[in-house]
């Protein structure tokens, strides 16, 4: 068994109240990991090649692991790992295989030769061996090596899981691509072989008994459609996911096309495999629909899956393309409604070329776009081609921005004060420690009465300031208490720096031993105050208030909440 990274650390960070303007705050009570400071990289693109060669992509991921670590990346989203049939060749015969999104033999991660039919595009000819044992991205051994290299750098590996549909091997008598066996009736791994469907009887869904019976429980645009209502199908998927988690070394799941099966299946598969994190591709710009899917993905609030924020992506593409930021007066999409569950992004393999669609984020505004998503709540996902294929300057600036996010502790539940959002100007303050300005209009923090900030990153039409260091006289709060999985601790107090009891106070950061620590640098030495801790920003600890003084360390052990 390959070594795997330990369970995702619960990371929480400071969130200050801001007055005088609308504050778009987090939804911490339902967050799986409130305050998580993860940065994600989509570790592939539609035409992923290493020096022009297929089959060497995993080696490239491993080779760039150090650079990813230096950029503060904590999650790499891998491409679909299972073997895809060659019937997906394009007219030039390039085996791009739909980027891996039509899995044929789930257990073949690049270690078997497979049988397919000749004669593109209809494949009615002779059977022959698939060209080599590797997948589009490499061999199983290279995949495991890449995961281990990432783990050694403190980076988790997320597998792209395609469960809605399955890539066929040949046509049946009804001209449907529906079967997975060669002429001997087997597939190379010998596992999850569900047989041929050689008649024309409905329904056109796939079950484990040979292709007919069973029903699907979601939408489908990609035949053959897999019947998740078939208990045997679900059992075999759970076995495969368990194998991917515990034998291959993946840490979590990116669920492809989750509209294609019930969200209750996500709960079932996650409960069976215990991923450190999961995220679903619920492609919909209706944020209410996305929230409904998240809520349905598990009965336990702490275990609900995250989702890609397609609504925010659309609004950002439109706003940055026009240079008009009026739609950003409120945080857009899922980011503005449930940021702890939002994965924000500018592009992915479906919105970026070679696809011809209007969804691509404008290339000439990439750095301004990353100045936004890397300073705002949600888990930001950097796209591979943006980071590695747009030139050294773009790469270095994205890296600078991601490191600034990490340094300042900007999290998926950070608080944002939107100061200006209009034509040619967006300005906001995040967590009372970072200010960002985007757009061609001149603007400085002093224009909003903000002082004590220094420029840290700028290029083109963006500029970012952080608080000027004052030498760091610290008031430290340490709360010793196990509050249970998925919960978190914050503090409030009787002084403005702790928001006079009524504000959001300060969020604490978890560390081993169930110690929740909060460090405050703006309380004068010797200033007296009272304070108390809360669970999930809503439940006060039992007992009286604690007395405190500025620039000292306070240790408490609450008896309960």
From TrEMBL:
<keyword id="KW-0378">Hydrolase</keyword>
<feature type="region of interest" description="Disordered">
    <location>
        <begin position="203"/>
        <end position="224"/>
    </location>
</feature>
<dbReference type="GO" id="GO:0005509">
    <property type="term" value="F:calcium ion binding"/>
</dbReference>
<dbReference type="GO" id="GO:0004556">
    <property type="term" value="F:alpha-amylase activity"/>
</dbReference>
<dbReference type="Pfam" id="PF00686">
    <property type="entry name" value="CBM_20"/>
</dbReference>
<dbReference type="InterPro" id="IPR013780">
    <property type="entry name" value="Glyco_hydro_b"/>
</dbReference>
<dbReference type="InterPro" id="IPR012850">
    <property type="entry name" value="A-amylase_bs_C"/>
</dbReference>
<dbReference type="InterPro" id="IPR002044">
    <property type="entry name" value="CBM20"/>
</dbReference>
<dbReference type="InterPro" id="IPR006047">
    <property type="entry name" value="GH13_cat_dom"/>
</dbReference>
<feature type="compositionally biased region" description="Polar residues">
    <location>
        <begin position="544"/>
        <end position="553"/>
    </location>
</feature>
<dbReference type="GO" id="GO:0005975">
    <property type="term" value="P:carbohydrate metabolic process"/>
</dbReference>
<keyword id="KW-0326">Glycosidase</keyword>
<feature type="region of interest" description="Disordered">
    <location>
        <begin position="540"/>
        <end position="561"/>
    </location>
</feature>
<feature type="domain" description="CBM20">
    <location>
        <begin position="467"/>
        <end position="561"/>
    </location>
</feature>
<dbReference type="InterPro" id="IPR017853">
    <property type="entry name" value="GH"/>
</dbReference>
<dbReference type="GO" id="GO:2001070">
    <property type="term" value="F:starch binding"/>
</dbReference>
<protein>
    <recommendedName>
        <fullName>CBM20 domain-containing protein</fullName>
    </recommendedName>
</protein>
<dbReference type="Pfam" id="PF07821">
    <property type="entry name" value="Alpha-amyl_C2"/>
</dbReference>
<dbReference type="InterPro" id="IPR013784">
    <property type="entry name" value="Carb-bd-like_fold"/>
</dbReference>
<dbReference type="InterPro" id="IPR006046">
    <property type="entry name" value="Alpha_amylase"/>
</dbReference>
<dbReference type="InterPro" id="IPR013783">
    <property type="entry name" value="Ig-like_fold"/>
</dbReference>
<keyword id="KW-0119">Carbohydrate metabolism</keyword>
<comment type="similarity">
    <text>Belongs to the glycosyl hydrolase 13 family.</text>
</comment>
